[in-house]
Amino acid sequence: MSDESGTERYLRLTVELTVEVQDLGGLQAAALKEINHPDADLDDDERREQAEMVSADDTGATALQWLIEPDHVLGLIEHVEQIEPREAVLGVEPSDGPSDEDDDHDHEGHGHEH
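User: That's the sequence. What structure does it adopt?
Assistant: Structure tokens below.
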């Protein structure tokens, strides 16, 4: 495929999403389940450290980082199978909530411009 022809192309996606945490305990529990899953690439000390960080963060941001995978983001792109996630850098931070400005932008910016 593209790897053999030397025509690799990479696209960097930037997504800004505001979510409302409706159940902090449930969010943290889901993250702890991921951290303690046998397939997680963590040793015992790392598991303990990550679990403490998730439990101590009362915003839920640290927990949410454990629950988002690059494949989930690619699910936003419908009908396309010719792309593969190569690198993911995810930042989750507390927010004051959605702003009116963001709502207006969402409605205006969904069209396809060339």
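DSSP finds six helices and no strands in the chain.
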